[in-house]
Amino acid sequence: MIRVLIADDQLLVRTGFRLILDLESDMDVVGEAADGRECLDVAHARHPDVVLMDIRMPVMDGIEATRRLSAEGGGARILILTTFDADEYVYDALRAGATGFLLKDAPREQLVSAIRQVAAGDALLAPTITRRLIERYAGRPSEASANRAFATLTDREAEVLRLVAQGLSNAEIAMRLYLGETTVKTHVARMLAKLGVRDRVQAVVLAYESGFVRSGGDPAPGRPGPL
Q1: Among 13, 141, 150, 202, which residue has the least CB neighbours within 10 Å?
Q2: What backbone phi and psi angles, to 5 degrees, belong to 124?
Q3: Any idea what the Cα angle at residue 42 is, between residues 74 and 8, rounded to 5°?
Q4: Where in the chain is CATH 3.40.50.2300?
């Protein structure tokens, strides 16, 4: 069972999500929270696998709650709930440790699929939205240590990272590079370890910030492209 915690300050939103998830045989809503502080308390008591986290909440907002849960390393993966008018907050949440995000008006099937995806250990990288956010709010120089980490990537790992930055799944990357999906997973795992990041979202954020990739996942000028 996928244990889900719903954190949103609107009762109707929480109720709607619960009604949807209660219909899924592999999901169990283990708690609800109306603010970030309550979310932390419920997470500590109920140990969810996935937290549906609203950004704008009283007492403590979703970004700070995400940052604290991520820092604790409890294993809960955080799926940010947002609207189009909160782009800058979404990017801050990704930097704080969120695994991905979902629009509040997403169809039922997309919500359920997103929860299963992040519970399985994947990051939710929707090419049409996530990349737009990263491109808009990234671009700040990264630390020298981050640039040194990129230099340790093999040509294949760098190629895989650029495809991840385009929003491709492991299966799609495998098809593009004529590799087995297990081999791609190995390259992704090694790339994440070398960069010192938790998941694909964090790797993509770091890649854009450092200038390792630019719009659309292309290599930055002056940097070698994939073989």
Answers
A1: 141
A2: -90, 95
A3: 105
A4: 2-124, 140-217
CATH T-level topology, domain 2-124 = Rossmann fold (3.40.50)
Q: 211-218 long-range contacts, Cβ below 8 Å, gap at least 24? A: 211/139, 211/141, 211/142, 212/150, 212/158, 212/161, 213/161, 213/162, 213/165, 215/135, 216/131, 216/166, 217/131, 217/162, 217/163, 217/164, 217/165, 217/166, 217/167, 218/162
pLDDT in tens, the chain (227 residues): 999 999 999 999 899 999 999 999 999 999 999 999 999 999 999 999 999 999 888 899 999 999 999 888 777 889 988 775 555 676 777 778 888 778 788 888 888 988 988 887 766 665 555 556 556 655 555 555 556 788 889 999 999 998 888 878 888 899 999 999 899 999 999 998 998 887 787 788 788 777 777 654 444 433 333 32
CATH fold for domain 140-217: Rossmann fold (3.40.50)
Structure tokens at 82: 């947002």
Nearest to 161 by CA among 181, 189, 141: 189
Helices 170-177 + 155-165 axis angle, to 10? 130
